[in-house]
Amino acid sequence: MIIDTHIHLDDGRYDDDFEDVINRAYQNDVKRFIIPGADPLTLEKAVKIAETHENIYFAVGVHPYDLEAFDSFDFEKYLQHEKCVAVGECGMDYFRLEGSHEEKEIVKKEQERVFKAQIRLAKKYKKPLIVHIRDASLDSKRILLEEEAGEVGGVLHCYNADEQLLSLAQEGFYFGIGGVLTFSNAKKLVNVLPKIPLERLVIETDGPYLTPTPHRGERNEPAYTRFVAKKMSELLHKNIDEIENITTENAIKLFHIL
After folding, report:
1. What is the pLDDT of residues 75-94, one digit of tens each?
2. Residue 78: CB partners within 8 Å, gap ≥ 6?
3. Residues 167 and 142 sit within 8 Å (Cβ to Cβ)
4. Sign of CA dihedral 224, 230, 200, 169
5. Using CA atoms, how far apart are residues 5 and 202, in angstroms rounded to an integer?
């Protein structure tokens, strides 16, 4: 069995064939799904999906691109829901910073404030974190350590292959591996993957984005985690069944799902 630990099933691109997407996943042994809370505007949709599908869970969080939603967002209402398994995706992202140096620094400080607040909520409700990091490894790691986020742990979603983040494995963090691993230009991730402890690996799609080879250019979906598992098995010299079992056990342990 595979657990897709990061799939945006609340995205409108799944609306027309949602049940077909889930059925294709089941046919490919993908049996559990976690919808990250990236956009507060679609959170109610994610909750309804989780409530009507036994094997789908959700997380609640504010992505660093959606900072303006944080202060008016009622996190605690959702964190107490029985199908809520994590806080996030939250984190730091400097990729799209624009403006003067001073303007960029203001955005960075605001991202840090919102990230820290979500870490504290995760600790309060004893939920793991789904952490988004892009072009912000040093600050993200510093914040996770300063806030003692290892108390609840979490996953580095779409792990960016930055070796300085590998030590977070000793702080209770897992590494989400998705379709990027199958890309021809993913040499950095291919080289770093064997350095991640097996007991810290989980599989994700980040669908509808980052579709693995051989389906690049198409909408991503949970069934395609099979290609990620296959590539992992080749790189780690493990049987694909072993990769599926290890990553599933890791996801169950992290998110406390049955």
Report:
1. 888 999 999 999 999 999 99
2. 37, 43, 47, 58, 60, 84
3. no
4. negative
5. 7
